[in-house]
Design brief:
Length: 101
């Protein structure tokens, strides 16, 4: 119910090389300490990004806060995970369309 230490290390290594990262979704069941290590490792790697690190989604936002990270350690924290991904994909969002008219 969590990624293993080798996977966490590989993800972290890849993340640290990036200049822009959008992370959506915890790596495990972070609410249980036995399954939070993967999520914590990814969050820690995001704090080392030399660019923009975005935490997307309510679960991810809750995870980083529950694991002791502060909002200021990331470029941006958004609770709109799915909607944010759709926006990045170029899909039209009804809420944004309504605001434009």
């Amino acid at each position: 119910m969590d990624i293993g230490p080798v996977s966490a290390m590989k993800f972290a290594e890849a993340i640290k090389k990036c200049h822009t990262v959008f992370w959506n979704g915890p790596m495990g069941v972070f609410e249980f300490s036995n399954f939070s290590a993967g999520t914590k490792a990814i969050a820690a790697a995001l704090t080392e990004v030399q660019g923009l690190a975005v935490v997307g989604g309510g679960d991810s936002a809750a995870a980083v806060r529950a694991l002791g990270f502060t909002d200021s350690q990331f470029g941006y924290i958004s609770t709109g995970g799915g909607a944010a991904l759709e926006y990045l994909e170029g899909k039209e969002l009804p809420g944004l369309i309504a605001l434009q008219s």
